Amino acid sequence: MRGRMRLWSAGRRSAAGLVMTATLAAPVSAAPPAQAAQPDPPASSPGTPHSGLFALPEYYLSGHGPVSVAAGDLTGDGRQSLAAVNIADGTVSVLLGRGDGTFGPPVPYPAGSGPSDVSIEDLRGIGVLDVIVADSSSGLVSVLLGNGDGTLGLPVPYPAGPGPSSLSVDDFNGDSIPDVAVADQYSGTVSVLLGRGDGTFGPPVPQLAGSAPSSLDSGDFNGDGITDIAVVNLGDATVSVLLGNGDGTLQPPRPYLTGPGPTDLAAAVLRDAGDDQGDDEGRGGTGRGKVSGGDAGNLDLIVANAGDGTVSVLLGNGDGTFQPARPYLSGPGPSAVDTGDFSGDGIADVAVGNASDSTLSILLGNGDGTLGPPLLHLAGPGPSTVEVDDLRGDGHSDVIVANGRGSTVTVLLGTVAAGAAGGGGGGGGGAAGDVRDSC
Q1: Tell me, what CATH number does 206's domain have?
Q2: SS (H, E, C) the chain
Q3: Which domain holds residue 280?
């Protein structure tokens, strides 16, 4: 589910300690706290921490029970910082970035009684990023306006629907002002809150989505220039596609079967420009990076299925419909998914957080919509969100994991620049193919 960065406007070491070079931002023990202890990776795994795709993981204190994390330049100096929501504390913590992929200590802000997701956006169009938090306990979305120096204002709450579990910030009515869509897990709806351009929002407009929606993403799935929504429904193992009408309202949901227990999804371009299944023109104007040759091909959906240890890929047809789901083994209890170019070939790959064994799986893309076997990496206790971003501005896809059963976020710095392997003009933003980061 998200805590995913969806940057609205175009542009986003400490001393090594014990236990897999764990690094803590706060002045505490050099090793991670007890609840953040990591299991050993399978001895036969091809993706041990020395797979070559990432440096060894580093750990940063965030708060108790971080369930979502987002990245963005909160200080206006070109350095990516992190915002993590901590469900056990009722806070959102800001970890200021140093520009080299490392982060300072957490600074907490009140975020409600049960924060569940977070996004970082410029809600006012002034070049200063703000923080938006969904609170599943109170049915609210809170906005903490940024001051431009890494600090935030007090939260301003807005009603959403019952049990908002995930949010997406996008332009749903075509006025170039960020709006918010929220998955309401208790009512089976998606609520859209239209932005006013000054950091405030109108009342929620609900639309039926499915049974117990757990995560959502947005993009242009049919190429008409209007933002659409896809939402995974935990209650009936489906993903519903709701095409936008261009005025902030949505068409009735069209469901597609996924795997058992869908928990998260990402909309991404998995087929490169040379694949004949793709389209010549890219879809979605708010993508988190681009594949070789630009945003080529139709948007596809990738769903994490906690019930059978797989991710499902539903290839988009470019007209708002999708092909039947194709499963790929990922790891035990997959709880979060995102995409990036981790191998440097300009093709989108898939990153999956596995809650049952505290690992991160990387499934390399083949460029035709299919995925390779999982390469395992250590993450942290109970990965609940996976966020892909370029934390150092060097064209690498880096991964941030919110460890929901601990008190840390894990950072795995990529070692291969996007497109470096000859994919030709990869994503620049370090996350080829996903629709949530670049404009």
Answers
A1: 2.130.10.10
A2: CCCCCCCCCCCCCCCCCCCCCCCCCCCCCCCCCHHHCCCCCCCCCCCCCCCCCECCCEEEECCCCEEEEEEECCCCCCCCEEEEEECCCCEEEEECECCCCCECCCEEEECCCCEEEEEEECCCCCCCCEEEEEECCCCEEEEECECCCCCECCCEEEECCCCEEEEEEECCCCCCCCEEEEEECCCCEEEEECECCCCCECCCEEEECCCCEEEEEEECCCCCCCCEEEEEECCCCEEEEECECCCCCECCCEEEECCCCEEEEEEECCECCCCCCCCCCCCCCCCECCCCCCCCCCCEEEEEECCCCEEEEECECCCCCECCCEEEECCCCEEEEEEECCCCCCCCEEEEEECCCCEEEEEEECCECCEEEEEEEECCCCEEEEEEECCCCCCECEEEEEECCCCEEEEECECCECCCCCCCCCCCCCCCCECCCCC
A3: 58-412
